[in-house]
C-alpha cells in the first residue's frame, strides 16, 4: 500500500523550552487495520502540557516518546476503515492517535463520540481528559465543601476552568490565577470565577501572596495544583488547617528540568514546604488521570448534560494544520492560548 | 496558702539547639483546686520532640509557651485533692500538667489511669500520645497492606516503635532508621523490625538511599515521616507509585529554624519534592494527634491488651528529678535516649 499519512515526530529531546528543531513533520505509510483494529482520519487533535514531560527521558509515570517516534496525544476523527464490530466507517472516535493525520488502534482503546451531542472537539477538552482531570481531582481529592475557598491556576485552561466551575456549583469561593488581563477577564465573565489574578502583574511570590490574601479573606482550603512555581509559593502560606492540595501538573517547572520559576522561594523549599504540610495538617495528593479512566462514565453522566445546557462553559483555541502543531504547542507552554488548545488536522 | 511546688519555666527562647540558659527551675505557690478541678502530685512526666516547637514564637498548630511560663507537657500522677465527682484522692490521672511537680486542671481535661493495668508510665508513651500518634498515623493515613514495605525513622522512639510493630503485625516488611548501632539492634531484637539502618553510618542522603534500597528491594510503600532531613531525602526517590507519607514531625529540622540537615538535597527541594509527589501519585498527609484524641478509646481497646500481653513491646528511658528535665530534653533532641524519654518527678 503506497498511500501516505503525516505525523509529527520527536526529532530530538529539548534542553529547556522546546524549539522547532525538536519536531519533524513528515510523511509515512498509511497503516492498515488488523483484526479488531480501526483506522481513523483525525479531524482534531489535542495539545496538553503533559506532552512536554513525554519529550524528556526522565523518571515519570509514563514512558518518554522515543526520538524519531510520533509525538503522543489524544485526537478525534472519523472512522474510515474498521475490522471491529464496535465501529463502522462514518463513526467518530477518540483515541491516542498522537500528532498525526491518521491513527490505527484496537477498538477497545477507542471511545465512541456522538457528533449529535455537540462538537466533537469537546472530547478533547471539557468532556475529555482535561475535564475529567479537573472533575476527578477536585471532587475526589479536593473534597470541596460549601463556603470554602478554592484557588486554581491556569484558570482559563480546560482543567482550571472545569475545577472552578464545579467548585462554584458546589458553593465555594473560587479565585483563579492566570497569565494576562484577558484571561483573568475570561475567568470571571465566561467561567464565573469570583476573582482572578494576573500573575504577570506581580513580580514576586510575595506580591502575589498579598493579592491572593486580599481575595481569600478566609484563607485557602483547596489549592488545585497545576502549575507549581510562583503560584505555589504564594499559596502555601495562605493554606488553612486541613487544606487539600491535589496535584495534577506543574507546567511552570516542565521546561526547566524541575527548577523553574519560584523554585528557590523559601516557602516551598523542602523544609518549609514539609513544615507547612505538617503544621496545617494538609493533605497533598499527586494523581494522573490515566489511573482513573474508569470514572469517565460517571464524569460524562454528571457533566455532559451541563455542557450541553451551557451551565458549564468551555473555550477552545484552534490552530490550523498538523504542520503547525509544534508552534501551537510551544506557544501554549508559554501561556499563548486562550482556552483549550486544539489543532484542526482535517 | 504558703505551700510550694516546683516547675521548669521557659527562661528565654532558644536560637537553634536549646541550652541550659533557656530553662529555669523554680518554686512557685501550690495551686488549690477550684470547683470541678483536681490537684495532682506528678510522679512521671513525658519529654517529647514537639516541645521544642513550643519554645519558638513561630506559626504552628499550637501556641508557643510564653517566656516565663511553665514548659508544656503531659504527666501522670496521684490525685491529692479533688473538687470533682470523677476523681478522688489516691486515683491516678494523666494530664497536661507541664514540667512541674504538681498540676491543677479541670477533671474533664484528665484521663484516669489504672495502675492495676500496668505501669502508669505507659500512659506517657506506648499507651499515650506517642503510641496513639503511631497507631493513628499508620492505620488511618498510611493505610498499610500486607506485603508492602514501610520505612520509619526514630525507630526505637515511642512513635516509631509503635508504627513498626503494628505494621509487622499486619504483614508488612518494616525497615527502621535510627541513630547508632545500639538502637538498630533494639529495633530488630526488641521491636521485631526486619532491618534497621544507622543513619550515622552514612555520610550523605545518597549513601543512605543505597543502603535503604538494598533493604527495600520492592521499593517503599509507606514512609512514616517523623524526622525530615537526610532520611527524607534518602527515602523520596525510593517511594513506589501510590505511596503514602503520613507526617507527624520533623525532629531533625526543629533545632535549625526549618533548615536542618539534608535541607539542600536536590531530592527534597521544592520542585523535585513536588514532582515526586505528582509522578508517583503519592499521598502526603500532615497530622497532629491532638486533633484525633477522640480515637484514644479505639486505640486503647486494640493496643492495650497487646501491651499487657507483651505482644507489643516498649522501652522507657527514665531520667531522675524534675530539675534534670532540661538536660534530658536536650539530650533527647540529639538522640541520646534509648526508648521513650520520661522524667521521674516523685
Give a quick summary of the entry.
The structure is a homodimer of 346-residue chains. Chain A has 346 residues and is α/β, with parallel strands linked by helices.
Mean of pLDDT of chain A: 91
User: How many strands of chain A?
Assistant: 15
Question: Order of SSEs of chain A, N→C?
Answer: EEEHEEEEHEHEHEHEHEHHEHEHE
CATH arch. level architecture of the largest domain in chain A = 3-Layer(aba) Sandwich
Shape of chain A: globular
Structural class of chain A: alpha/beta
Helix proportion range of chain A: 25-40%
> Could you name the CATH homologous superfamily of the largest domain in chain A?
NAD(P)-binding Rossmann-like Domain
* Count of DSSP-assigned helices of chain A: 10
Unreliable sequence segments of chain A = 256-261
Largest sheet of chain A: 7 strands, mixed
Task: Assign the CATH class of the largest domain in chain A.
Answer: Alpha Beta
Domain unit count of chain A: 2
The greatest interface between two protein chains, and residues involved on each side, is:
A-B, 43 and 42 residues
Strand fraction of chain A equals 25-35%
CATH topology of the largest domain in chain A: Rossmann fold
Oligomer: homodimer
Distance between the termini of chain A: 22 Å
- What is the radius of gyration of chain A computed over CA atoms, rounded to a whole number of angstroms? 20 Å
